[in-house]
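Let's sit down with a protein and look at its sequence and fold side by side. Go ahead whenever you are ready, and we will take it from there.
>
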Amino acid sequence: MRNVAILLLAACCGAACSADAPTARPAPGVTPSGKPLVVAPDQRALLKSSDPKLARNQQFVYDFWRIVYEGGHMERAAEFMTPEYVQHNPNVESGRDAFVNTIGKARPPRPVEETSRFPIIDIIAEGDMVVVMWARKVRDREKPDETYEMTWFDVFRLDDKSGKIAEHWDSSERWGSSGRPPGAEFFP
């Protein structure tokens, strides 16, 4: 997990993490260096690695993302997730069945695309961990008529024996009475 945290810091901060970095808070949808969030122009290029295991893990998570999470094909969850799947999002209980029940209600099945409809920024793999970074549009809490983009992170740990997704982290807060995450209205 430590290596993934370092990768996240490097990906998010870049040069802005240096001692010379300005301390002013960047505008929403802008990196600390003042650059706008950049969505990968070629998602397939993000899946390449000189390490076959890392390339396999990136492809596996990407396929899970497109087929199960985005495509809503919960009937295929067993191909990608261990039964004992551990969920660290406070809105979804652990266990593959709990994931299928909760996310399946929000994501009816639809055709699976060759690439994700989500604006993916990067997919990073290290050891048994894969991080998917994407641009997420949300409503401003203080000014609900305004929206902004932020970078969202989903972190997956793959089981060494089965190669399936065994654990997931994101930075979600409780969804509240709507039962939907902030920005869900903008999800593709």
In short: Residues 4-23 have pLDDT under 50 and may be disordered. The chain has one domain: 37-186. The longest strand covers residues 147-158.
